[in-house]
Amino acid sequence: MRLLLVEDDNHVAAALSAVLARHGFEVVHARSGEEALQALVPESEGFGVVLLDLGLPDQDGYEVCGKIRKRTSIPVIMVTARSDVRSRIHGLNLGADDYVVKPYDTGELLARIHAVSRRTAPDDAAVSGETALKLGSVHIELPTRQVSVDGSVVQLTRKEFDLLALLAQRPGVVFRREQIISEVWRTSWEGTGRTLEVHVASLRSKLRMPTLIETVRGVGYRLVAPAS
Description:
- Residues 2-117 form the Response regulatory domain.
- With 228 residues, the chain is an alpha/beta fold.
- The chain is 42% helix and 21% strand.
- The strands form 3 sheets. A 5-stranded parallel beta sheet has the order 2-1-3-4-5, sandwiched between helices. Strands 6-7-8-9 form a 4-stranded antiparallel beta sheet, with helices on one face. It has a 3-stranded antiparallel beta sheet with strand order 10-12-11.
């Protein structure tokens, strides 16, 4: 995902950009409101999220948020030290999708980025009208939450099914661990990493396909579609 970071402090931006890059984001840094607005023209569709600091040198961050919202529906997360309720309400009324107060936990910020992306992105299966996914001998029925291999039904837990369905909707695409935890467990990465590993191992075992879900070291997992 490409992410527009609007932050006038170069040291803060560099540190945050490094963290985001480690988690698979391509970060574009804008140091002012004007730079941010220019970055959104003409390629606004190339960004998945805007992280907007309110203390900008040329324009008030609220003003920038209003201008962004007039020209695009890209999710905007305000990142600021202003923690009072009135400021948060004002930001949300201007069209911000979320509001994070400094200092913040990096895991929480990542979870919020994934959450706003999930809320604003169209569901692939819903858009295409898909009710089933077929990957070689693996057949996934989305409405009934039933999985079969070579015609034989495999009993999965709720989280195992959610994990498999998430990966199966984009075969070959690497899903970051943080993204999987956010979408399947609806929480942040901290303390849940081992749970994810256990569920991946369980899926490999139950489906009798140890190579179906590939571990991408230091990043996450992807589903390798088996041959038909």
